[in-house]
Amino acid sequence: MPESAEEAATGQVIADQAAAQEAAATVHRLLREAGATVATAESLTGGLIGAVLTGVAGASATYRGGAIAYATDLKCGVLGVPRELLERQGAVDPDVARLMAIGVRDRCAADFGLAVTGVAGPEPQDGRPVGLVYIAVAGPGGDQDVREFTFPGDRFQVRSSTTLQALRMVADLVKAFTGK
């Protein structure tokens, strides 16, 4: 019997969660090998990335901490994103994600900063569609990676997919930094 769309979506979220746990372990291993640390700035994920990272034994050696800047004004007040940018572009913007990553990296005295901002749903936000997400990683020496994604599914699926992709991106930038 074919599975329902809801069953398929649940299966994908479970697969994403397992992959995210594996990606988090990889991130920690790469950071340990590089003698580096990471900090997170989360909006739509509300702490999921930090939770997955701290779910790995020994995380305290490489995870400095993070900020859950769910409200737009916290992106400015806590992470240093210019108010003018937020007023002009809104919170779901690649430059906002990039500045969140830099802000959390600097404020937490980490080597790498990882930031996510987007629309998990159920409704669009500031004219941005559900599933639109920007993920940014800021590394030492000015290395940066900012990407746009459109993730399908409901709120839970978008947040799960964002967490997985964010962890993969930080692993990729750490690899690029170390030349591995």
Overview of this structure, please?
This protein has 180 residues and is of the alpha/beta class. The chain has one domain (5-178): Maf protein, CATH 3.90.950.20. Helix content is 49%, strand content 18%. The chain has six helices and five strands, in the order H-E-H-E-H-H-H-E-E-E-H. Helix 1 (5-34) runs parallel beside helix 6. The radius of gyration is 16 Å and the shape is globular. The mean pLDDT is 94. This is CinA family protein. Residues 22-173 form the CinA C-terminal domain. Pfam families: CinA.
Summarize the structure.
It holds the Pfam family CinA. The protein is of the alpha/beta class.
What is the number of helices?
Answer: 6
CATH 2nd-level architecture: Alpha-Beta Complex
Largest sheet: 5 strands, mixed
| H/E element order | HEHEHHHEEEH
Distance between the termini: 45 Å
Number of strands: 5
CATH superfamily: CinA-like
**Alpha-beta classification:** alpha/beta
For the record, what CATH class applies?
Answer: Alpha Beta
Helix content: 40-55%
Q: What's the rounded overall pLDDT mean?
A: 94
Gyration radius, to the nearest Å? 16 Å
Q: Give the strand line-up of the largest sheet.
A: 2-1-3-4-5
**What is CATH's topology name?**
Maf protein
Name the beta content range.
15-25%
